[in-house]
């Protein structure tokens, strides 16, 4: 029998549980068990039912599954607007990875808009009131974020892409070790002969992830006995602002700049070009996030890559585990980034002896 894409049989009638049962030579209850409790069936029976489901094109009713299992198979995710540029592309990659992992687990993502000025409870309150979502994936977690405590108090499962950064950790999270990434960038530049390595980050205290990335640079600089005074600049995540913020660092003789994002690195590129200098040849530049822009820049940008596919998979794994076992101890996973070396951090011809 050819597969039907509309849950109907070759004779035009609907493909039902009974249709599958007749095809497999089992009872309708056995088909139901194969869908909802496959572990209780013998392997050969389960295989026969699954083959019949595939051959008939049967698709279980989501509404019926929800009534039986008290599960909507829906995961909520609030999308915050991103400014044009590298940062938006990074979150697009994460959302794609998350969607794929959710889909493979038999769930669907229910997207809703979050305000541009930071996390808010409004969307979560409305979604819980209007839909029986099974849990949430949070991103953009930071200090004073109210969502984790609010969801915990109400017993709603969630997992965060990002740490709390507030001292008191709540719930499960998956994050990328930003400090490890910038530490590796310093090691790479030191190996190239650089000693005057500057860091261009976001404003101190404005972002836990930003402070984490700055800490990795500071840690590695101290380990090598390199001076950090006058080598740190700060900017909002904007190309023009970064172009202005990096000027004092270049005036101070920096031969290399590590930026907290590819967006800030683009500002470094612009500032160097204004001085008729070339990234990689005159001043090494390293970004963070390994956005699609990094590879197509001229010269191509060395950048710290986040394992976003693994982040998406781990977020879904932790969330489903939390849904299944609400009282289990919280699990936190810190993943390692990798440094993707390109032309912007090749050996410079202008490194001054110290």
Could you explain the architecture of this structure?
- Keywords: DNA-binding, Transcription, Transcription regulation.
- InterPro entries: HTH_LacI, LacI/GalR-like_sensor, Lambda_DNA-bd_dom_sf, Peripla_BP_I.
- With 354 residues, the protein is an alpha/beta fold.
- It has 3 domains: 17-60, 434 Repressor (Amino-terminal Domain); 74-176 and 308-336, 3-Layer(aba) Sandwich (Rossmann fold); 178-306 and 340-345, Response regulator (Rossmann fold, 3-Layer(aba) Sandwich).
- It is built from 14 helices and 12 strands.
- The strands form 2 sheets. A 6-stranded parallel beta sheet has the order 2-1-3-4-5-11, sandwiched between helices.
- α1 (17-24) packs across α3 (43-56) and α8 packs parallel to α9 (208-223).
- Residues 1-6 and 62-69 have low confidence and may be disordered.
Keywords:
single chain; 354 residues; 434 Repressor (Amino-terminal Domain); Rossmann fold; 6-stranded parallel β-sheet; 12 strands; 15% strand; elongated
């Amino acid at each position: 029998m050819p597969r039907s894409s509309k849950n109907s049989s070759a004779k035009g009638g609907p493909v039902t549980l009974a249709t599958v049962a007749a095809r497999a030579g089992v009872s309708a209850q056995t088909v139901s068990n194969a869908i909802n409790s496959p572990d209780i069936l013998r392997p050969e029976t389960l295989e026969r039912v699954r083959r019949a489901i595939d051959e008939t094109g049967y698709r279980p009713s989501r509404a019926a599954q929800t009534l039986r299992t008290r599960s909507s198979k829906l995961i909520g995710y609030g999308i915050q607007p991103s400014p044009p540029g590298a940062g938006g592309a990074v979150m697009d990659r994460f959302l794609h990875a998350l969607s794929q992992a959710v889909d493979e687990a038999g769930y669907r993502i229910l997207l809703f808009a979050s305000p541009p000025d930071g996390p808010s409870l409004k969307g979560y309150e409305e979604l819980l009131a209007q839909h029986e979502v099974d849990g949430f994936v949070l991103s953009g977690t930071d200090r004073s974020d109210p969502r984790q405590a609010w969801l915990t108090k109400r017993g709603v499962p969630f997992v965060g892409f990002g740490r709390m950064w507030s001292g008191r950790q709540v719930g499960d999270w998956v994050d990328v070790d930003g400090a490890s990434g910038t530490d590796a960038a310093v090691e790479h530049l030191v190996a190239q002969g650089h000693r005057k390595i500057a860091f261009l980050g976001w404003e101190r205290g404005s972002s836990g992830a930003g402070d984490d990335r700055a800490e990795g640079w500071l840690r590695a600089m101290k380990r090598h006995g390199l001076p950090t005074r006058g080598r740190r600049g700060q900017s909002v995540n904007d190309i023009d602002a970064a172009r202005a913020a990096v000027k004092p660092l270049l005036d101070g003789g920096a031969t290399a700049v590590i930026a907290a994002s590819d967006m800030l690195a683009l500002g470094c590129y612009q500032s160097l070009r204004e001085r008729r200098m070339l990234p990689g040849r005159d001043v090494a530049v390293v970004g963070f996030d390994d956005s699609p822009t990094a590879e197509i820049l001229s010269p191509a940008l060395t950048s710290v890559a986040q394992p976003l596919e693994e982040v998406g998979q781990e977020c879904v794994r932790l969330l489903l585990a939390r849904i299944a076992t609400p009282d289990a101890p919280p699990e936190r996973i810190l993943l390692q980034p990798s440094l993707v070396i390109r032309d912007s951090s090749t050996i410079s011809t202008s490194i001054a002896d110290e």
